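User: I'm putting together notes for a lab meeting next week and I want to include a structural view of one of the chains we've been expressing. I don't have a solved structure, so I'd like a prediction I can at least talk through. The sequence is below, exactly as it appears in our construct file.
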Amino acid sequence: MNFNVRRGIQVLCCAVSLILVGSLAFSATPKAPQVESDKKGKVTGTIVSRNGDIVNVKNKKSGSVTAVLITDDTKIERKHGKLEFFRHTDMDVTAMVPGLTIEAEGVGNANGQLAASKITFTPDEFAIEVAEEQQITANKVAAGKAQSTANQGVKQAQVAQASAKQAQTTATNAGNAAQAAGTAAVMDAAAIQMVNQRVSDLGDYKTVTEAGIYFPADGSTLDAAAKADLDVLAASTNGLQGYLIEIAGYASSTGSKQSNQKLSEERAAAVAQYLRERGNVPMRRFVVPGSYGATHPAATNTDPQGRALNRRVDVKVIVNKGLTEGI
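Assistant: Thanks for the context. Below is the predicted structure for the 327-residue chain, given as structure tokens.
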């Protein structure tokens, strides 16, 4: 996917907007209108907040907010999109996080919520690739070329006094181009940082329990120590209302970008599967098991000890701070 600078910035700004929307606290979410009990309903819009099994969806047309209840019987369907979104379709329910546009249909329950029987979403609306390395590189190259042109212009001004005005104009224009390209690169970097921000980093949530799960080189199999840590984490959810589990998989930098991405995804999936099968954690309690490849290293990749620390999955049990305030 190739972007020109202007298009790249536009996409990046859209992605940042999604994250900012997702950072809305429950206090800022309009009170959800009641859905009539036993009456069929449908809502299309963007998830603005989430508390456990309940996602608050802002209607695309009216702007009103509907509380949508996700249960074990809710069918989550991924519409065909241009981008690959997760390897395992049974994990699509984990995509129900602030910023995602969904279409939900179901029946009103006694609590005035829409008990969803079916939810559909399109990955392209959420999983937009804005962290393309070639775009950042292109911006840096453009900045370098523009600066080089500016330097040449200054030299021309010094040597050719007769055409100093023209040379200075060239230098000024090139300097402006360098500054613009440099600014674009900074915007790219800032946007990528925002898009990579995990749900637990948003101000709405607090971390209740967390664990680091480590893996062997080129492996995604849980050892006894990892399983024991996950058992403790799963036990911490007993009696905890409205909790969510966030999973982020990583790899060391020894392999290719593609292999590291695959490894980090398989590691995140292994943790999710264990918590689901052995910890009895419903899949709907997970939020986007992320796979970040070799990004965000916990230690240096220059020695075996550091690489071992980077072959990990970070797991957090989080709760929305606005849970006790209701919806």
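A couple of points you could mention at the meeting. The first helix runs from residue 5 to 22. The helical segments are 5-22, 133-159, 164-195, 224-235, 257-277, 304-310.

User: Perfect, that's what I needed.
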